[in-house]
Write a structure and sequence with these properties.
Layout lengths: L1 H12 L12 H22 L1 H4 L2 H6 L2 H25 L4 H15 L19 H21 L12 H13 L1 H18 L3 H8 L3 H25 L1 H11 L14 H18 L3 H19 L16 H7 L17 H5 L25 H6 L5
The structure holds zinc ion (ZN) (2 copies).
């Protein structure tokens, strides 16, 4: 039954344009469903904070505010689900949303109490996933409507895969932070770099931030180029390039091995060099938002900015399917590195005709893509 419901639900989300117009109950149904899932997950987080939430977020967030917001979210989900049930011929969206609201309420709703004690151990950043998804969605969904490059639905080809990538990288936030900072502390304890570190940390914060951006992009440029040039590394990176549609969710499609390599090779040296930790965290946030932006379906060409900063069109060419787009535009922030090392490509006013890897060798689905680099 669950499988049938999921299939019908996906069919509804990916429905033809004609049956997603205003008045068809699609918009209310989708919003109800998103709110109901958010509410349900939030209730789980309130009940099992130990297992499901990030300690840093727990400290920073006011729980009473979470409860009020959750209350509103659940009521809105309920109302919109009802609207969708009345308007829409197929009832899957409204029905599922309503069911989730009922489950959330049964688990305690906005009054849900913590079960068990708070201990410090392994956790999954489910709260981070919801927060991350909602905040990024709130920023990028309207931008992709207003400055849309290509007509495409939010539920476009392979959106489920990319959402799963989004979920997994959010949930594994603990491991990634640990992987970045723990080895640095080990190197810090053994290496004698105190004079360099003192010089670096004595600079103004804004300058440190800029230096981090610049240095990591230089390192990132060569790591990225290596991932394109070395055949067995390419198989990991091909997963990222397998996206045939780009939007705000597509950038999170990355093989775990590549994330670890890239983050490790950029964050560890910066920590060891002694940059202020708050600037490193700021860098991680900026790099995340920036990556989302350059993959997004946004046409937003500001002439003077193009030679200085990477734009969506610049990075879309990196993902382009045509011959001329192979192995160009490796920079993620500053095009200057592509200019310096001879890989700059930006034909005037043109976008690539298609996206992805020629012949589409990478299979679909998260686990198949996870295994792909290890296959012959
Ligand atoms: Zn690439
Ligand atoms: Zn990309």
């Amino acid at each position: 039954m669950l499988k049938n419901l999921t299939t019908s639900l996906i069919k509804e989300l990916e429905a033809e344009k004609a049956s997603t117009q205003i008045g068809t109950g699609w918009i209310s149904g989708v919003v109800a469903l998103v709110l109901a899932i958010t509410g349900f997950v939030a209730v789980l987080c309130l009940r099992y904070p130990d297992l499901l939430t990030v300690p840093e977020i727990r400290v920073a967030i006011d729980v009473s505010l979470v409860r009020i917001t959750l209350h509103i979210v659940l009521i809105l989900a309920f109302l919109l689900a009802t609207v969708s049930l009345i308007l829409r011929q197929h009832k899957f969206l409204g029905f599922t949303a309503l069911l989730l609201v009922l489950f959330a309420v049964a688990l305690g709703g906005s009054n849900a109490r913590i079960s068990g004690e708070l201990t410090s151990g392994v956790y999954f950043g489910l709260d981070w996933f919801i927060l991350n998804l909602t905040l990024t969605g709130i920023v990028f969904l309207p931008l992709e409507r207003l400055f849309r490059r290509k007509e495409q639905s939010v539920f476009r080809f392979e959106w489920r895969e990319d959402l799963l990538y989004f979920l997994i990288s959010s949930v594994m936030v603990q491991s990634f932070t640990y992987l970045s900072f723990a080895p640095s502390n080990l190197i810090l304890a053994t290496a004698q770099l105190s004079s360099i570190q003192a010089a670096i940390v004595s600079q103004p914060l804004w300058l440190q931030f800029f230096e981090i951006m610049f240095l990591t992009d230089l390192v990132q440029y060569w790591v990225h180029r290596l991932f394109h040039k070395v055949p067995w590394l390419w198989k990991f990176h091909a997963v990222h390039h397998s996206a045939r549609t780009l939007d705000w969710m597509a950038g999170s499609r990355m093989h775990v091995v590549e994330i670890i390599c890239l983050r490790g090779l950029t964050v560890i040296p910066m920590t060891v060099l002694g940059f202020d930790q708050s600037m490193l965290y700021l860098y991680l946030i900026v790099v995340y938002l920036y990556a989302t932006y350059i993959h997004s379906n946004i046409k937003f060409d500001i002439e003077w900015i193009k030679p200085i900063l990477v734009t969506p069109r610049y990075h879309h060419w990196h993902h382009g399917i045509e011959k001329e787009a192979i192995d160009v535009n490796f920079s993620i922030h500053f095009p200057i590195f592509d200019r310096l090392f001879g890989t700059y490509f930006m034909p005037k006013g043109r976008w690539p005709s298609g996206l992805g890897v020629n012949g589409h060798p990478v299979p679909s689905g998260y686990w198949k893509q996870f295994l792909y680099p290890f296959t012959k």
